[in-house]
Structure formats: C-alpha cells, structure tokens
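Format notes (please read before filing issues)

Several people have asked whether sequences and structure tokens are stored in separate files. They are not. Every record keeps both together, in the order shown below: the sequence lines, then the token lines. Line labels are part of the format and must not be stripped during preprocessing.
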Amino acid sequence: MISQSHKFTHDADAIAFDDKHRKTIQFNISRYDTAVNKGMARYNNVEEAKNQAASIKRDVLQNWDKYLLQFEETISNRGVKVLWAKDAVEATGYIEQILTENDAKLLVKSKSMTTEEIELNETAARMGCESVETDLGEFIVQVAGEKPYHIVTPAMHKSKGDIAKLFNEKFGTPIDSTPEEMTEYVRQVLRKKYTQAQIGVTGANFLIADIGAVSVTENEGNALMSTAFPKIHVVIAGLEKIIPKMSQLGLFYPLLAAHGTGQQITAYNTIFTGAKQNIEEQQSEMIVILLDNGRTTVYEDDEAFESLACIRCGACLNGCPVYKTIGGYTYDTTYSGPIGSVLTPFLRGFKDFSHLSFASTLCGKCVEVCPVKIPLTDILLSNRRKAVEQNLRPIAEKILMKSFKLMSSKRIGFDFFPGMIKNVGSYPLNYFGWGSKRKMPKFSNQSFSQQYKKKFEIQKKHS
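Then the structure lines:
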C-alpha cells in the first residue's frame, strides 16, 4: 500500500500545475484578500487586538482544566448533558447511542470541522440515518461526494460553472443556473429537511466558561435552523474551543470575522445556554460532546502546545503559498494548510503524517496573518526535528544531509569541489524530488571565497 508521504508527493505533483484548479483558487483567494484588507482597515490597531487575543488564549492553555470544568459545571446546572470523548471512537459511540435512543432517521448539521474529524456523516449513514449538510459550501461538497476543501470555505475549489454542472447532474437544474438560482434551490430543499429532522448538530466556535454556553458563528442562518426544529441539539466541540468569559466575545467575534471572511462581524452569532423550552409540548434536549482526539497529546508537547490557541479562521491557509499551489485535498486530512501541518502529526501519528510539516517554505506568512500569534514556523521546524529523531525520514535524505554537512561545515569543503562536480551531483534532483517544472540552480566553477580571494589578490597587486 502506498504511504501517506508518497501519496502526498504524487497528488501534489498532479495538482500543482493543473491550470484550471490554479485559476479557480487564485480567483477565490484574491476575492478573500480584497475583503480581508478592508476588514483589517477597520481596526485602529489590529496588532493590539491580536496581542490581547493571544494573551487570553495563552491564559486558557495555562488553566485549561479549570475553564473546561467551569464550563461543564455551569452548563450542566441548566440541564445540558456534557460528555467527554477521548477519541473519535468514543465520540462515535455517543452519536450512535443518541441516534438509536431517538430512532433518528434524519439529521441536519451545520458546518463543523470536528464532525468531519470523527466522520459523523459516515456514522449516521451506517446507522440508517440521513445526515444533511446545511452550510451551502458543505452541501455542495457533500452532493459531489467530497470532503471540505478548506476549513472555512469548503467549496473553494469549485467555480460557479462547476457547481451549476454538478446540480444539473444531481438535481436536473438548468446547466446555466446563476449562483442566486442555485442558492434558492438549496434553500427550498433544506427547509423541508429542517422541519423533518429529529437531530440537529452544530460545532462550536467558542465554549464560554463563565456562563456555561456555546457560541456558534455563521453567515447563512443554517445553524439556527438546524437547532430550531429538531428536538435534540448535539454540539461536538474540540477541547481547545474554551474561552474564559462571555465579555471576551467582543474581541474574538470581529477578529474571527475579519481574518476569516473580511467581515466586520459574522452575520449570525448565537449563544446557546441550554435546550429549547416548552416547544409544542415536546421534550427538548441539548448534549455537548467535548472531543479530545489527540488534543491533549498536542498540549503535552512543550513546543507544539500553542497551536491549540487556533480559532479556525483559515487565514494561514489563504496566505500559504504551498496551500495555494497544492490545494486542500493533497493534505488528505481534516485540517490542511499550515495549522493542519502542525496538528495532524499529533492527531494522526508522526509515522504517517510527519511529512506535512515539511510541506512549507517557512516564509512566515502564516505567522504574520495569525490572529492569535501562533508561532507556526517554529512548530513546523520542531516537528521536522521530531521526525528526524524518530527515524521517519528517507535514508537517502539522511545520507544527502550528512554529505552536505560534511561539505559545508568548513569553507575548505566548498572550495575543494569545483562547480562542475557540484552540478553533476545535484543534476539528478532536476528529475527526482525537485519537480519536473523546476531546475536546480547551477554552481559557479569557483566558490565565493575563491572568487573573493582572487579578486582581492588582483586589487592588491595593482595597488
């Protein structure tokens, strides 16, 4: 079976020079960049806002257990059931139990990456329950039989023509449908699903410790609709989503919106403090599943733990030159881009996914745009070191690096080999590992020190 690393290299090579894909991504991210520039311009001092957000998130990591237990106690006092899931298997077991107890045949779900992480849709299908994505982008990729391409913009890789063709094939809508017409079609489909569903599922953008509440932000109203009609509301949230105080939402809401979509604030911001009350005499219930699934492993690492400060705005993906070249699917994991490259080795194992931490130019753009100042490049480097220490890198790479170290550690090493020999040694990289569309730079016949020494001697001779 092909390894994840080789699959990544193969998929990256296939997509990197796909002109259609590149054109679609460049167009969509250019619109994002324009919107975000406007969003940032609304701030008098965006760096100060980021510093405050980073400080709060570091406080959370220093007192993680305290805030999580405070959240559990406060929300439980209002009748909300809180379940702790150590991994995807345990979370899936809870879901299966909820579906069985409620004889659920239809589930509506708002956008949630944690549900992607535990493959909730697949679990529901296995239990004979239809799970319907209600976010427009998520709905599109579900209809296409795909996973989200981006943690904020699930269908970023599709043009309006792609979606019109997909809807024509699946629903018989006109091939020349406009975005407005397709949106209206989906709206009518979902209205029926909302009113018929037994279970409504959301994620959580923030878990608020002091009041014991779940905050969900969205732009379409689909999360509100997913919780308004079903009698059971299930929240699936990662442990890292906790913040200490409700008053801090005034800082985080605009930061998340500005970095995620360029908005001043997301269109719908809902704070759930408990189950619906006395709705048509039906008994309503709210259940919160707090998901670990490797997060405490990240927390235990002295170098990577700060990545848990992430608020999932997606800014690092949109700024990353690697992500914009190879796309979201190449990573073959729930979380892509720089934050995914940092987290995934811990969540799914260094043996299979350490290569993602090498999928970076270390240009620092991800650090520059991060609203909570996660040192992503530092963590990527520490992950690389861990991969080397665990002997997870190719033997050829180890030999190559030792040879390079031997040659470059002292000036005499570079001076000893003429440029022709260096060029012959690097020539195979034009065909293996470096990419067929690029060429290795050529070495000069003499090293810099040799050229400098020769030039200095000539000047000295004529002086």
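For reference, the curators noted about this record: The mean pLDDT is 93. The first helix runs from residue 4 to 16.
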